[in-house]
Design brief:
146 residues; mainly beta; Immunoglobulin-like; five-stranded mixed beta sheet; four-stranded antiparallel beta sheet; 1 helix; 13% helix
Length: 146
């Protein structure tokens, strides 16, 4: 009887650990999307609304240099899509922030496979980048506000 109680107790201790691994990506890679507000400090607030077909992250008003980010498991068939709508003063822009498993977006110019897509919002437009081996962001201007 004592052995049975010990086994039950050990099972209860181990079970939550096992269930927590269910949130990991087993069959597909894990991707991260980062949107960093790099607008001038004296500018109007930035508003962001990002979503996919399954997830709506709601509206965010990130402060200067704040990193709004999320992660997800890639689709088995490579069809993951996330897009964002950005508002800043009288300007607004909507575009895909992830639709390609190798370059973040199909027309992206990231030189090599990256699972961390970094979007930098600046007054002259939107920059797409990735973290390099030194932990810095290599980026280029992807599009402007118009």
């Amino acid at each position: 009887m004592a052995n049975s109680l010990i086994y039950i107790f050990l099972f209860l201790l181990i079970t939550p650990l096992e269930l927590s691994t269910a949130k990991k990506c087993f069959f597909t890679p894990k991707y991260e999307i980062h949107v960093i507000n790099n607008l001038p400090s004296d500018s109007p607030p930035l508003k962001i609304h990002c979503q996919s077909g399954d997830d709506d992250f709601g509206e965010y008003f990130p402060s200067i240099n704040e990193d709004v980010n999320w992660s997800f498991c890639g689709n088995l068939f490579g069809k993951s899509l996330y897009f964002c709508h950005f508002w800043w003063d009288v300007k607004n822009k909507t575009f895909d922030v992830f639709n390609d498993k190798e370059t973040c977006v199909k027309d992206g110019q990231i030189q090599y496979f990256s699972r961390k897509c970094v979007w930098i919002v600046k007054s002259d437009g939107f920059y797409l980048g990735h973290y390099n081996d030194n932990g810095n962001i290599d980026m280029y201007r992807y599009t402007d506000w118009s």
